[in-house]
Design a protein that fits this description.
Number of helices: 7
CATH superfamily: Hypothetical protein PA1492
Helix content: 55-70%
Strand order of the largest sheet: 2-1-3-4
Distance between the termini: 38 Å
Structural class: alpha/beta
Number of domains: 1
Strand content: 5-15%
CATH topology: Rossmann fold
Radius of gyration: 15 Å
Shape: globular
CATH class: Alpha Beta
Number of strands: 4
Largest sheet: 4 strands, parallel
């Protein structure tokens, strides 16, 4: 394992980013894959942007799995929305199924209602750092 000092690799930012990504699916393998993708996205956001990042999927997946809790958004909505309300930025991970996800749609609507900026990214964009160029063009 490498010792990484965050200050050497990325700028610091204020607040935190809330990562929205699809999760619920009848196939446990799909949920596991979505969890891994959310983990990779969190690492990329933290090291590329210097943003503290919160992902309800990363936070709750192992707990839900260990205790065999309902993986649908309805159980987790209250916690997710409360964390989202305090975020400075929302980043949506556009994995397959994100547009059909009830939870993703609900969280985006809440971010819009709260006036929190919402940005959309593929996992590849986050890992390869293509997001910085994209966001500069938007401004």
């Amino acid at each position: 394992m490498m010792d990484i000092k965050i200050d050497e690799f990325c700028p610091q930012s204020e607040g935190y980013s809330y990562l929205i990504s699809p999760y619920s699916h009848p196939d446990p393998a799909v949920r596991e894959s979505r969890y891994i993708c959310a983990c990779l996205a969190c690492v990329s956001i933290y090291f590329r942007f210097g943003e503290v990042v919160y992902s309800p999927i990363v936070h709750w997946h192992m707990i839900a799995k260990e205790f065999r809790l309902d993986p649908t958004f309805s159980l987790w909505r209250r916690n997710s929305i409360e964390m989202l309300k305090h975020a400075s930025t929302v980043r949506v991970l556009t994995l397959p199924g994100w547009q059909e996800s009830v939870g993703v749609r609900d969280e985006i609507a809440e971010a819009d209602q709260q006036g929190i900026p919402v940005r959309y990214h593929s996992l590849g964009q986050l890992i390869l750092g293509e997001v910085e160029k994209e966001e500069e063009e938007e401004e």
